[in-house]
Design goal:
about 400 residues; alpha/beta; Rossmann fold; 14 helices; about 40% helix; globular
């Protein structure tokens, strides 16, 4: 037992929790341990062989993420399970340190290519998602009547926003006002200036490719300025969580539609959870004695993280199962690449493939209800390739 050493990156979210405790994601180390214990109880192959090595990083400190990556390499782990906001560490592991990593957050395809073949992410490649989002929005009529479209991006989303702009251009939507922020996936002083620019330029439809904290600041300023553009949103920067959306000004954001990949909004819409999601929640409850609420801002961050950590463990074991527990880097990669249409707890089915090391391939429409303080799922998952 314990002969496959696996690193687990644990995000310290205290910088975000200082803004609002609901931004917390719970005890991630305990969540991973609970998920692994659940698989052991069910006799999943190689679950008993895994030894977890935990290391914590500050979610807003890129240098700490890289330092944790170097420490994992020194630990001699066979692979690393990443976390929200671990991207800098995940890239260091895959690009420079030779360690396979399954991370959470999206990166654009050029980063995947640079880090090939060792980087995998649960979330869709960011530029792939952004292009699909434009097709989805166009199919819903968001750009009918030739509105003036505001596009807000930051340094973290620059490449993928360029892909979205190219898709807008391809579809014939040319009246675009782009504003760049110097943010790196969290708030920036540019958020306030952007709101003024969008008002002065007469923007009527807003596409926000920035962090949740930046969008909160932008829309709060817009509301104070009396400017109320129609927001067409997507799952980026944790926008598609109840806690983030609850901080948006209702006068602007109530009724906003978004393209989501995670399973937010099912309970609020009266939909049954999937067996895989129920399994993840049951594993957490067995370990903690606590059943999480499946809707609402108070549990939003922790709920989504419990589901993600369950998927990290499940996908790791599935990969090991495909290669009979082999732990050489090329074997681990081959194991992940053999995963096809695997049900996830946190979103739609997951598929990895050579040259396409991102998991989610499906999305659906959700709508924000300010009265319910919850996103509500509107339809079933559909392949992103057919979003438009």
């Amino acid at each position: 037992m314990g002969n496959i050493k696996v690193g687990v990156a644990v995000a310290d979210m205290s910088a975000f929790e200082a803004v609002d405790p609901a931004y917390g994601i719970g005890d991630q180390a305990a969540q991973v341990a609970a998920a692994l214990e659940g698989t052991r109880a069910r006799g999943v192959a190689h679950a008993a062989d895994v030894e977890l090595v935990f290391r914590t990083f500050d979610a807003v400190d890129p240098d700490q993420k890289r330092a944790v990556a170097r420490a994992f390499a020194a630990d001699g782990v066979a692979a690393v399970l990443g976390a929200r906001d671990f991207t800098y560490g995940a890239v260091a592991l895959a690009e420079r340190l030779g360690v396979p990593v399954l991370d959470v957050n999206a990166v654009p395809t050029p980063v995947h290519a640079r880090c090939a073949p060792l980087l995998f992410t649960i979330r869709t490649a960011q530029d792939v998602l952004y292009r699909a989002f434009i097709r989805w929005a166009a199919a819903r009529g968001a750009f009918d009547g030739s509105p003036r479209i505001g596009v807000f991006s930051d340094r973290y989303t620059e490449t993928s926003t360029n892909a979205a702009l190219a898709e807008l251009e391809r579809l014939g939507h040319h009246d675009v006002v782009r504003v760049r922020s110097d943010g790196l996936g969290y708030g920036s002083d540019d958020d306030v200036d952007a709101a003024t620019r969008f008002r002065d330029e007469g923007v009527t439809v807003l596409l926000p490719f920035v962090s949740g904290s930046s969008l909160v600041e932008l829309l709060g300023t817009s509301s104070a300025l009396g400017h109320r553009p129609t927001v067409v949103d997507l799952e980026t920067g944790e926008h598609a969580t109840d806690v983030t959306a609850s901080l948006m000004p209702p006068a602007i954001y109530d009724g906003t539609v978004a393209l989501a990949l995670n399973r937010v909004g099912e309970s609020a819409a009266g939909r049954a959870l999937t067996p895989r999601t129920e399994q993840a929640l049951a594993d957490h409850e067995a370990a903690t004695g606590r059943r999480l609420d499946t809707s609402g801002r108070a549990s939003s961050g922790e709920l989504s993280n419990v589901l993600l950590t369950s998927d990290l463990v499940d996908l790791l074991l599935a990969a090991l199962g495909h290669v009979d527990g082999a732990t050489a880097a090329d074997a681990v990669v081959a194991g992940f690449e053999a995963i096809t249409d695997r049900p996830s707890a946190s979103g739609g089915d997951i598929t990895f493939a050579p040259g396409e090391h991102w998991g989610y391939r499906h999305g659906r429409t959700i709508t924000w209800s300010a009265a319910a303080e919850a996103w509500q799922a509107q339809d079933e998952y559909r392949p992103l390739s057919r979003s438009g």
